[in-house]
Design brief:
globular, 28% helix, 433 residues, OB fold (Dihydrolipoamide Acetyltransferase, E2P), Chloramphenicol Acetyltransferase, 24% strand
């Protein structure tokens, strides 16, 4: 049998082979990892579907492969031997896929639907072609087994669209420019991670009407509290950061304005209101910007959030982050304060509807209580999907963030209170038992 790249996650269609963990002749067990694939901002382990011996390795490290592609041949344990050729036996033939009218009529009301929310099956090259032409693959009925969409299906659909709309223009194919004509250059391949980031940002920017709301928060008092409690957090193995505090404030704002914790289901014209708070935090790594998710942020203390944030950030930088760690986010925070810069316009992390961009705190002369005072001001930029969020709500949300930072309760910093709650919870559980 052949070991193939399985379905990994929604939106993940290909990746680069990072490491091959077995060699030809090796015996492997079922579910044993045989290869690691760098895909969708994470490294995914590819397991063997059965126990047996690796007879042939079909790929090399550094090459890009697609979901469904064979990577190894496996001699499965206990597998029946194939009958010899010429003894009157015929190999079992696969059932043919039902015949479908050539990719369907472009004018018919066909929409691909999946209970799991997965995209219609198609190869990366077909998806890329559809993206360049601005074609929605969910409108094409695939003719291959399982409804898989081929290049032929896509071209046939485009031809029918052109026949119905002769004036419709197509996006021209990209042209390679010879920059060496003007001076010395060197070229290097774009990593699969960078391509994934680029494609996702392009999709978000071209399909979401962005609006960015700006404001500043006076974090002078907040920084004093942070300085006061930072040593006690360090004793617990946690680093008390502004990002960790922002997570706590964001949860409060999202609960007050739940529209920012939703997603737009364009296929069904429905707004999905989420009752969980999984917050993404953009992390700067050598491979690019990764966004690990802190699940159920509303149920965690500032200490818990600080510890988990440090752990996920380190996993991201070491490329040990899993697909599970980067999926399911409801709202994202991108804090560039440690690097520098002020206001900026972050791109919404689709399918979320909003993202908060945070710059560095700058000491400024500010008029407060009728007097000029020196205060530390933090720049904030809230980008949101204007199809879902109105400008007035955007202003209210960022104002809520400002108020949350400027009036952050000192009790949230207290570790003793957090530990007492945990002890009380454990005691209650023991009593119930």
């Amino acid at each position: 049998m052949q070991i193939k790249i399985p379905f990994l996650a929604e939106g993940v269609h290909s990746g680069t082979v990072v490491s091959i963990l077995v060699k030809e002749g090796d015996h492997v067990k079922k579910e044993q990892t045989v290869l690691e694939l760098e895909t969708n901002k994470a490294t995914a382990p590819i397991p063997s579907p059965a126990s047996g011996t690796i007879t042939k390795i079909l790929v090399k490290e550094g090459v890009e492969i697609s979901v469904g592609q064979a990577i190894m041949s496996l001699s499965e344990e206990g597998a029946a031997k194939e009958p010899a050729k010429g003894v009157g036996s015929k190999p079992a033939q696969e059932k043919e896929a039902p015949t479908i009218t050539e990719a369907g009529d472009a004018s018919e009301e066909y929409t691909y639907e999946s209970k799991s929310g997965a995209l219609p099956p198609a190869s990366p090259s077909v998806r890329k072609m559809a993206l360049e032409l601005g074609i929605d693959l969910t409108k094409i009925r695939g003719t291959e087994r399982g409804g898989r969409i081929t290049v032929k299906d896509l071209k046939a659909y485009v031809q029918r669209l052109k026949a119905g709309s002769p004036q419709k223009s197509e996006k021209p194919a990209p042209v390679s420019i010879d920059f060496s004509k003007w001076g010395p250059v060197n070229r290097k391949p774009v990593s699969s991670t960078r391509r994934t980031i680029g494609q996702k940002m392009y999709e978000s920017w071209t399909t979401i009407p962005h609006v960015t709301q700006f404001d500043e928060a006076d974090i002078t008092a907040l920084l004093e509290l942070r300085k006061k409690y930072a040593p006690s957090y360090e004793k617990k193995g946690a680093r008390l950061t502004v990002t960790g505090i922002l997570l706590k404030v964001a949860v409060q704002a999202l609960k007050k304005f739940p529209i920012f914790n939703s997603s737009l289901d364009e296929s069904k014209n429905e707004l999905v209101c989420k009752h969980y708070y999984h917050l993404g935090v953009a992390v700067d790594t050598e491979q690019g910007l990764l966004v690990p998710i802190l699940k159920d942020a509303d149920k965690k203390s500032l200490l818990d959030l600080s510890i988990e944030l440090a752990q996920l950030s380190e996993k991201a930088r070491q490329r040990k982050i899993s697909l599970e760690d980067v999926q399911g986010g409801t709202f994202t925070i991108s804090n560039l304060g440690s690097i520098g810069g002020g206001h900026f316009t972050p791109i919404v992390n689709k399918p979320e509807v909003a993202i908060l961009g945070v710059g560095r705190g700058i000491v400024k002369p500010i008029v407060k209580d009728g007097k000029i005072q020196t205060r530390t001001m933090l720049s904030l930029g809230l980008s949101y999907d204007h199809r879902v969020v109105d400008g007035a709500d955007g202003a209210r949300f960022i104002h809520e963030m400002v108020q949350g930072l400027e009036h952050f309760k000192e009790e949230y910093f207290t570790i003793r209170q957090v530990e007492e709650k945990k002890t009380a919870k454990k005691t209650t559980q023991k009593v119930k038992r």
